[in-house]
Specification:
477 residues, Udp-n-acetylmuramoylalanyl-d-glutamate--2,6- Diaminopimelate Ligase, Chain: A, domain 1, Protein-Tyrosine Phosphatase, Chain A
Length: 477
């Protein structure tokens, strides 16, 4: 069964008024006219910069069947179905709550400083091998994304997976109360968004807000190797959760890593999940992804899914775009290089994991490991030291050249050994042509930085080299 919202169901959910009463059935929900599909219900959200009411007519052109509005939008056909509400964001929240209430799915929520989206995608793959499964699209994990995702939950699916994010205290608790998870996975607690928190302990407390949406029958899954495990465990117990599972290398872990064998194509993992020894293959390289798999497998077990089926499904896992995806790019001069795209975002712990991945990459004779790094944002007063501190990890992982951009990355540039020091530029746009000119056959190039640094400009410049090496492209025109 696909998603179905009848007109009368929407009216009751949002306590709205139908301006042009018609019978219609929405097969999707959208808040962005650019991604609206035929049959969607469009919700005109007023944001900080844009007002969705100005784009209702675009949603109509895209095939929307109706729209939730707080005022009459311009350029919309007079007979187009509109549901008037006092506030469209509140209406979206109401729609999400009703979407959650009418679902019989087992709900798994994921939060953590890093690894949320990768873990969510692992869960989507694993639980999807057992029953019909819905999961948050992309990173719709904030105050808009969570109710939107809940409103899209099909009624008859077996599992629902929701990513929940935050960068301030108090943000996660209302979202957890909307999602009402049966299982909550906290991937880790690390020094992320430090400019908004007095300490990493405060970040742990903010992550623990996910338990506020759970009843005592819920199950928490927590990284036992994390320094803040005891703090998270106490928070879960305070909320009344009777069952808390831990994952990691710790001998007391319910999901325990026994052995990890990595290569350029992925990892072979031996683990014990709730007393059952299991060996499985993860079709993506990186120790951090393999470690995440312990938590997601334990979450699957908590959701009563078949562990063997779930583990087998991981053999088809691929990281989401911008989170470690690899591409071989041919050069017009001959040969090729490997691009590792980590451009989605960056934090100290995630950057260290990416550098370890680059360090483990096998190179042909003459190949070099090149790191292209942009500023890691939202680190507060500790930012200069955290950037400079990456120098040690770069040396440990035998990185040959480090190119940097951004004000904070100047601290890393200065801390690097002279032999590793590449270019430093103020932004990704000015750095891109220098990186492009320096790459050689056999190199492995990692590109990573915070989302606001637009490191995709650099990966785009590197991917363009593939077009230049295509004989058909070179001869065209």
């Amino acid at each position: 069964m696909t998603l179905s919202w009848q007109a009368q169901d929407v009216l009751r959910a949002v306590r709205g008024q139908s301006l042009h009463p018609q019978d219609w059935t929405a097969r999707g929900v959208s808040i962005d006219s650019r991604t609206t599909h035929p049959g969607d219900l469009f919700v005109a959200i007023k944001g900080d910069a844009l007002d969705g009411h100005a784009y209702v007519h675009k949603a109509v052109e895209a095939g929307a069947c109706a729209a939730l509005v707080a005022k009459r939008p311009p350029q919309v056909p007079p007979d187009f179905p509109l549901i008037a509400v006092e506030d469209t964001f509140t209406a979206l929240q109401d729609l999400g709550r009703v979407g959650r209430a009418r679902s019989h799915a087992k709900i798994v929520a994921v939060t953590g400083s890093v690894g949320k989206t990768s873990s969510k995608e692992q869960l989507r793959l694993m639980l999807g091998s057992v029953k019909d499964t819905y999961a948050t699209e992309g990173s719709l994990n904030n105050h808009w994304g969570v109710p939107l995702s809940l409103s899209r939950l099909p009624q008859d699916f077996g599992y629902g997976i929701f990513e929940i994010g935050m960068n301030h205290a108090g943000e996660l608790s209302p979202l957890a109360r909307e999602v009402l998870p049966h299982v909550a996975l906290i991937t880790n607690v690390e020094a992320v968004h430090l400019e908004n928190f007095p300490s990493v302990e405060a970040i742990a407390d903010a992550k623990a807000e996910i338990f506020l949406g759970m009843d005592p029958a819920g199950i928490a899954v927590i990284n036992r190797d994390n320094p803040h495990f005891a703090r998270l465990l106490a928070a879960a117990r305070t909320q009344g959760l009777k069952k808390v599972l831990g994952f990691g290398r710790d001998p007391k872990s319910d999901g325990r890593l026994l052995k990890l064998t990595m290569d350029d194509e992925g990892s072979t993992i031996e683990a014990v999940i709730l007393g059952e020894k299991i060996t499985f293959r993860l079709a993506a390289p990186g120790a951090h992804l393999a470690f995440n798999a312990l938590g997601t497998l334990l979450a699957c077990a908590a959701a009563n899914a078949d562990i063997e089926l779930c583990a087998e499904a991981l053999s088809a896992y691929r990281p989401p775009q911008g989170r470690g995806t690899r591409q071989t790019i041919a050069l017009s001069s001959g040969g090729s290089f490997t691009l590792i795209d980590e451009t989605y975002n960056a934090s100290p712990i995630a950057t260290q994991a990416a550098l370890a991945l680059l360090g483990q990459t096998t190179l042909p004779p003459g190949g070099r490991r090149i790191a292209v790094l942009g500023d890691m944002r939202e680190l507060g007063p500790t930012s200069p030291a955290l950037h400079a501190g990456l120098a040690q990890k770069l040396v440990e992982n035998k990185i040959d050249i480090v190119h940097c951009c951004g004000d904070m990355m100047m601290h890393l540039h200065a801390a690097l050994p002279a032999s590793m020091r590449g270019c430093h530029m103020p932004d990704s746009e000015s750095l891109a042509p220098l990186v492009r000119e320096s790459v050689q056959a056999g190199d492995a190039v990692l590109v990573k930085g915070s989302h606001s640094m637009h490191m995709e400009i650099i990966t785009g410049a590197l991917r363009a080299l593939a077009a230049e090496s295509d004989p058909a492209r070179r001869c065209a025109g």
